[in-house]
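thread: overnight batch results

M.L. [08:02]
morning all. the overnight job finished for the chain we discussed friday. pasting input first so we're all looking at the same thing
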Amino acid sequence: MIRERQYIQTREGLNAFADELKAMQLPEHGVMIEVKLGKRTSAQNNAMHKYFTMLGDDLNAAGLDQRKVLKPGVEIEWTPDAVKKKLWGSIMKALTGKTRTRDLDIDEISKVYDNLHRALAEKWGIMTLFPSKERL
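M.L. [08:03]
and the structure it wrote out:
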């Protein structure tokens, strides 16, 4: 059965969806289909957001609050959102010109991670690995 939103990852899934479309009874006013080409898989998206959480936890455990890593002032612990916006986001924009993580392709995610990982390892000794299927 066709759902309002469907995520298709394989050729087989695409063929099955096309078969369902061909077999369906068209409503009187027709059907509108919107296609969005994915920039990354849902697994990559989950891994990226898991990384934001893990990195924030590692920075906090090392006593490296935002004040120490970014600028002096009031001590502020890291949250996944702060990691995403202040660390990942600034490097992402500098390297790709993009401001939204959803616009990154697979190679750009690796490029941003590699640069962030290297910078944190060199300056603070923080080496948080990017999650894999085994580490999600």
